[in-house]
Amino acid sequence: MNKAFSLIEVLVVVVILGILAAVALPQFAGASDDARTAAVQSTVAGVRSSIASYRTSAVINGTAPFPALSELTDGSVLKFDLPINPFTEVGGVQAVTEGQADARSVVSEGSAGWNYFVDNNATPPVVVFYSNTSVTTTAPDGSGGFLSANEL
Hints:
Elements: H1 7-61, H2 69-73, E1 93-95, H3 98-103, E2 114-119, E3 126-131, E4 136-140, E5 146-148
Parallel strand pairs: 1-2
Antiparallel strand pairs: 2-3, 4-5
């Protein structure tokens, strides 16, 4: 006598698999957002750390404390290639004004992935480096919400 699964048994298994997939897929979707957030945080921290190292040397040597945009991007400050912004898939860094930097404004989002402002003549000198997108990340803001990429 041949044994086989009945149609009802097969349907029950398909429904259970569908329920499991519906529960598991959102967990994986959130993982890619977490990865993009971590990538932006890592890039911003790496650039800011490189700028701090440059500042230490500059202060000892008596030169301008923060690098100009050209120095930031020519390999003398960053010892790594500046990656593309994972939220916009756009690379490069552009200069922004002091007002734009203070507001963490997104400027021509399609033309550069990162924004940079430096004023070595201010007292004290000022430098700001941030992501050129306002996409919401998975980084908590401390009040139950999430920070945008340009706030990291």
